[in-house]
Specification:
The protein is α+β, with helices and mostly antiparallel strands. The protein folds into 2 domains: 97 residues, Phosphorylase Kinase, domain 1; 85 residues, Orthogonal Bundle (Transferase(Phosphotransferase), domain 1). The protein has a 5-stranded antiparallel beta sheet with strand order 3-4-5-7-6, with helices on one face. The protein has a 3-stranded antiparallel beta sheet with strand order 8-9-10. A two-stranded antiparallel ribbon has the order 1-2. The longest helix is centred in the last third of the chain and has 38 residues.
């Protein structure tokens, strides 16, 4: 973190934002609830563990604040430290007391691109693939990369959320999204410029989450049954 954000911005965070901000993570699987955001701060986005806001006087910086009781702050700081600089990722300029000041990435999430019918060129997918490979070369493990965590800006791909890149367990979200892009989006949505309502996108997202849960449950159940089978054989000897 050789670069530093404006001192006045950091001062405003401590004096205006943090003392009055009211956020709560009700369910770790759902976005954070924002009860109150002091003026003139603007909400840019919210995830399951943190919210992202910005000050209109400093539009090129965003502040990511973790909800009380939610972990991940230290891990995200470590991820940014390992990443260094790459054009497809943001940069961490300040990190302390449960919040990070990041360089703002401009663009539209692929999730929103589907809603607005914006064309997503192949270069966007290639850029994100290259960025994830770069992260792996830095000892990281791209995780939880989905339509809301990647963006398109001027025809290029960006990765917005890297907070889970220390998780080593396999994650197939990005590969599944790529399959949907090449098998469904390019032949159907791209030429017709179809717009998908948010409620349908949310249904797909929840069905995918349910399907993943069922798949993992079945795999664990199968493993346990196999272990019981071998244990019974061993006890019968």
């Amino acid at each position: 973190m050789d670069k530093l954000p404006p001192k006045q911005l950091v001062k405003n965070i401590y004096q205006e934002l943090l003392p009055r901000l009211q956020i709560e993570s009700v369910n770790p699987c759902d976005p954070i609830k924002v009860s109150y955001l002091p003026q003139p701060w603007r909400l840019l986005g919210k995830g399951n563990y943190a919210v992202v806001v910005y000050h209109p006087d400093y539009p090129d910086y965003v502040v990511k604040i973790y909800a009380p009781g939610r972990t991940g702050f230290e891990e995200e700081v470590e991820v940014y430290h390992r990443l260094g600089y790459h054009p497809a990722f943001s940069e961490c300029l300040y990190a302390k007391d449960g919040f990070l000041v990041l360089k703002r990435l401009y663009g539209t999430t692929l999730y929103d691109c589907m809603h607005f019918g914006l064309l997503i060129p192949k270069q966007v997918i290639k850029d994100i693939d290259e960025a994830l490979d770069y992260a792996r070369s830095r000892g990281l493990h791209p995780h939880d990369v989905h339509g809301r965590n990647v963006m398109m800006y001027q025809g290029r791909g960006l990765v917005v959320d890297i907070s889970d890149f220390l998780h080593q367990e396999p994650c197939s979200k990005w590969n599944n999204l790529k399959k949907a892009y090449y098998w469904l989006y390019l032949p159907v949505f791209y030429p017709l410029r179809l717009r998908v309502p948010y409620f349908l996108l949310d249904i797909v997202r929840k069905c995918y989450r349910l399907g993943t849960y069922v798949k993992n449950f079945c795999c664990q159940l199968s493993l346990r049954l196999t272990n019981i089978k071998y244990l019974n054989k061993y006890l019968k000897r």
